Amino acid sequence: MVSHQLIVVGAGLAGLRAAVEAKDAGVDVAMLTQVHPGRSHSGAAQGGVNGALANHPDAQDDTPEKHAFDTVKGSDYLADQRSALQMTTDAVPAIYELEHMGCPFSRFDDGRIAQRPFGGAGYPRTCYGADKTGHYMLHALVEQAYRRQIRMYIEWFVCRLIVEDGVCKGVVAYSMTKGGFEEFRGEAVIVATGGAGRTYSNTTNAVISTGGGAAMAYHSGVPLKDMEFVQFHPTGLYTTHILMTEGCRGEGGYLLNKDGERFMARYAPTAMELAPRDITSRSIQTEINEGRGIDGKDFVYLDLRHLGAEKLAERLPGTRDLSIHFEGVDPVYDPIPIAPAQHYSMGGIDTDVDGRTVMPGLLAAGECACVSVHGANRLGGNSLLETVVFGRRAGAAAARDILGHEHAARPGESDGRAVVAVQATVDELAGREGSEDAYVVREEMTEIMRTHYGIYRDEAAMKTGVDELLALKERLKKAKLRHTGGVWNLDMIRTMELEGMLDVALATASGALVRTESRGSHARTDFETRDDERWLKHTLAFYQADGPPKLDYKPVEMGLFEPQERKY
Amino acid sequence: MSDITFHIKRFDPADGKPPHYQDFVVPIAGSMTVLEALFSIQEKQDGSLAFRYCCRSSICGSCAMYINGRYRLACQTNILHMGVDRVTVEALPHMPLVRDLVWDMDDFFTKYEAIKPWLIRNSELPDTEVTQSPGERLKLNMPIDCILCAACYSSCPSVWTESNYLGPAALLKAYRFEVDSRDEAGKERLPSWDNERGVYRCHTIANCSEACPKELNPTEGIQWLKGSAVRRRLLGRKK
User: Fold this and answer.
1) How far apart (Å, rounded) are the C-alpha atoms in residues B234 and B228?
2) pTM (two decimals)
3) Same domain, B70 and B92
4) What's the domain range around B54?
5) Contact residues on chain A for B42, CB-CB shorter than 8 A
6) Residue range A485-489: average pLDDT?
7) pLDDT single digits (tens) A258-285
8) Which of these, B207, B83, B144, B112, lies nearest to A106 by C-alpha position?
9) Interchain CB distance below 8 Å, A106 and B31
10) Which of A35, A286, A418, A545 could be bridged to A39 by S-S, CB 3.0 to 4.6 A?
11) Is A194 in contact with A40 (CB distance < 8 Å)?
């Protein structure tokens, strides 16, 4: 057994920021991570991080309140309003702090942090480092973790929470490099494992974005909130779904259909290409559905040619490289084939603004959590912000609990049962009849999610989808491990991940089926309008071993902005 | 659709055998990458195959490998573009093996940590940002794009022959901070790289710059550091 005061699961931006905060407060903190922290998926974020710094000449009167309004309007009024304001207020010091840590933001001529326009924002308030902002932020925080000599358990796959008497007391993890399972006990656990994009076949997300942390909490009885709200990024590369940043449009890029028409004029005449992501993705999908995709196919063009080689080199160098390497298209000379792709999980582990869940000892932050500040649709540039703001708050809350021993659970002594239980699960996986293949189940699941819970949804498809996912759960029980070796057993990791992914997918599917309205990213062809009277509320999904989750609801925190029709 | 043979270097610490090669035939269509082919093999042919992966979009640095005699990111390597029907895939050469294509990262990151890879400030921080002109920021453009994939480190003959040498990735990181207009390390970071296991072990072979899948130039950064060390001694300034 290994013991630390605080266990942070996941070492992307949220986990790193939490660990740094707790370490500075004097807590003995350890991070457990499946990949080296610098390889986390936070690093794939491109366009920028929002904060009302008012550095841009066109943003002199920008404020956190205006940022909060844009966030709430963008959320289609499902965000908790004071939580959103908390985030936008914390944003300004959070971005200066990143800069002080060394994050190499791009600069205006006066030496201040540069900002660019982004979708759904009333002001240019997205701070950026070219189009590699996530990479730069991630490495700045990795560097801070090394500076503080924070204990890192790298290439440890966390598979289960240890819960005793309703209190989270640690985790069980698999050492990929040494083989075998180990029990980690702490007075608090912060889950910061990122999104669940890989439940979809068409995702921009990394292969490790499997929703593992959310699944662990869910299996332990903690509800997942608003899982039906899944963001589709308007511009994924056509063949690989790799992200082409919103910064492309922030810098002036066009979306064109087969007639060369800037079709956004019909959907968002004022904001044009800088409408929020839900609206832009629906517009692209409508163009495709109505036969105006390029050559009648299921993609349109992102055209950057008019920006010129020099601007691309300065502002969007990574976009050009990705487009050349992965699509064979040089955006200096040719438009980029793009289609909407799953990008972000608005939903997640139900937390408050300090990352606390309903389970004592368990906190969560980042994409795996749902505060909620994104509601039914997240604005671009708010996810990097969320990681550092709520990572810091969760780290601070955990430190307060541990040092003040208010809610903190004493880690307790190990009787070895937790590891025995996980080992028994693995033995069971290895002993199955083997009439099914886990990878086939995974492929079918991701196609069900893409086709039945995509940009446009309806009752019939979603009902079928729930049944199909439940059938897949049964089939997965017949898939056996093909490899039982000790070190770097990907077969075991990927099969264990898949069990969680199916349950997280079912939470999305079930919540979506029941919500008979269209709000933000949840667009139903059979219920086309928002229904505030019945559905201005958060969905809570509670795991049930048999069948779909039990659903409950809780009110949205209002009080600052009255819901209105969203026009851009 | 064409069949491509993957000739993969395998190693299992449990079986006591030295590394050996194993062939797998994978039908390739469209824009399949080497990383996707490895997933296909792991899923459909041999569940025991081990390799690192994460972003699959050339930003995380997980999947640097030695592919047909070149340092490449598996995720960024389009198989059909290689124009061959046989692809040899090996872990980064000269690295201790953990299993199959997975190598031991401990030395690599210990050396990274040794150069104090963080911004050092001594003066009081302002309430807002520390300003930096676009020209000053431009100097960071090359080194900040490093993804720590270790292709450079694996390719460096000075690393092969002197196990204590910090290597190109760590030194590029030192360069990244020493050229940053905001950094106030003074002599604090200097002893970590201004020595026999640091910049002077670089013999400007420039394998690192050729190996880098992000097309960065660690050699250039290391030469700047050498010049900076001399300038500090003779002129009392680093630039």
Assistant:
1) 10
2) 0.98
3) yes
4) 2-103
5) 490-491
6) 92
7) 999 999 999 999 999 999 999 999 999 9
8) B144
9) no
10) A35
11) yes
